[in-house]
Design brief:
The structure is a homodimer. With about 210 residues, chain A is α/β, with parallel strands linked by helices. Chain A is built from 10 helices and 6 strands. The first copy, chain A, has helices at about 10-20, 35-45, 60-70, 85-95, 110-120, 125-140, 150-160, 165-170, 175-190, 195-200, and strands spanning about 1-5, 25-35, 50-55, 75-80, 100-105, 125. In chain A, strands 2-1-3-4-5-6 form a 6-stranded parallel beta sheet, with helices on both faces. The relative contact order of chain A is 0.10. The interface of A and B includes residues 14, 83, 160 and 198 of A. The structure holds a DNA duplex (30 and 30 nucleotides).
DNA sequence: ATTTTAATCACGTAAAGGGGTGATTTTTGG
DNA sequence: CCAAAAATCACCCCTTTACGTGATTAAAAT
């Protein structure tokens, strides 16, 4: 008997997962949450064997939630759920101990297999996710992990602020903003603002 | 008795919608499809009152599918389903006759209301979608129609080329490129490259 | 036939971005 | 605790963008 907890901000997805997991006699739906905070609250007083976790949550990124869960409850297997256009997150989830990665267009057998595999302590990747994983890990010889500050500055650049304006907003020197900007260019392999914004939007870093 | 057909490439979403629509006695699930082509095939020999249609389909955009359905079967109400970050598609769907727009994190009552409203021939918008719709339609009082040349230059800017590089590629003066760039800024109400690229991507001008 | 729009080029100034390099201080992680 | 990563600031030089203003020509629309 495996107990499964679901975190997803889309009620329809939850409804769908619950609906068919209920048909499986060896699986029990422990509960669900539509936000990271609700999920955290749940695990303060309860537990589960496996968490099916959406990467896009309203209050926290799935990556951070995964990190938090795995550090507090290392025994719980986390399986990431994602839509197709978020390939770049896969590697990060794995780094933080996710036990699997499913795309939301996965069929029922795939989900059951992922849960079963996770229970055995092995990672599971959907066929599609595997392709993406391979593609992105091949591409990135210098892995693009942005620091908190870099993300912050990236967002402000994307909002149209100049380096000076950003420096004033964050109470730091223009040179510092410029340094972060340059580091962003280096990390993301771009050479100017246009490509930076494109990269950021296309990889949903905003 | 309203018959509802569902088109979505995510099996989980379909499962979720079916699961709870079955509980409603005045609604009948006519069927579902995970691709645009399967949907088109279905309506060659069958029909339905309402289609719940995802905007992201593997073989065709929801916008095109909506257009096609409405031109062949104007009596069928199409309700668009979307994730949160696709605001710019809303207006296009409406132009092609969609009867409503729901975000996928809509709750059950909202979906039922959308179906009921669509049956009465009126459009329904989820609260969130309404906000987005309002925001985008307000912005375009002077609708931004870009000339062929402007689009061409916009694309090159988005590919990271500088004005000089663009001028060489198109065999025109740097000043001309600069003029076009200025016109783009004016037309799209932005003030620098970052916002230009963002606007272009978010409104699918690339 | 005349106005509008698109596309072209020009000049000038000020502000911002792009590239390199180096150094200090926190913060974080093992 | 120690090493690594993140965040901070600095200086130089040069390129590019941003903004204004104005002008010519050709094509399209009225």
């Amino acid at each position: 008997m495996t107990s499964v907890f679901i975190v997803d901000d889309h009620q329809l997805i939850i409804e769908g997962i619950v609906s068919f997991l209920q048909k499986e006699k060896h699986i029990k739906v422990a509960g669900y949450a539509t936000s990271a905070s609700a999920c955290i609250d749940y695990f303060k007083t309860n537990t589960a064997d496996v968490i099916l976790m959406d990467i896009n949550l309203p209050d926290m990124s799935g990556i951070d939630l995964c990190k938090l869960i795995k550090s507090n409850y290392p025994g719980i297997a986390v399986i990431a759920l994602s839509t197709i256009n978020q390939g770049s997150y896969i590697t990060q989830m794995i780094e933080y101990g996710a036990s699997g990665y499913l795309l939301k267009n996965a069929d029922k057998e795939e989900i059951l297999e992922a849960i079963a595999t996770a229970q055995n302590g092995k990672p599971y990747f959907s066929f599609e996710a595997g392709k993406i994983f391979k593609a992105t890990s091949e591409k990135r010889t210098g892995l693009p992990v942005l620091s908190k500050r870099e993300k912050e500055i990236l967002k402000l650049i994307a909002e149209g602020f100049t380096n000076i304006e950003i420096s004033r907003q964050l109470f730091i020197s223009i040179d510092t903003v410029d340094s972060h900007r340059k580091n962003l260019y280096t990390k993301l392999h771009v050479k100017n603002t246009a490509l930076l914004i494109r990269y950021a939007i296309e990889h949903t870093l905003l």
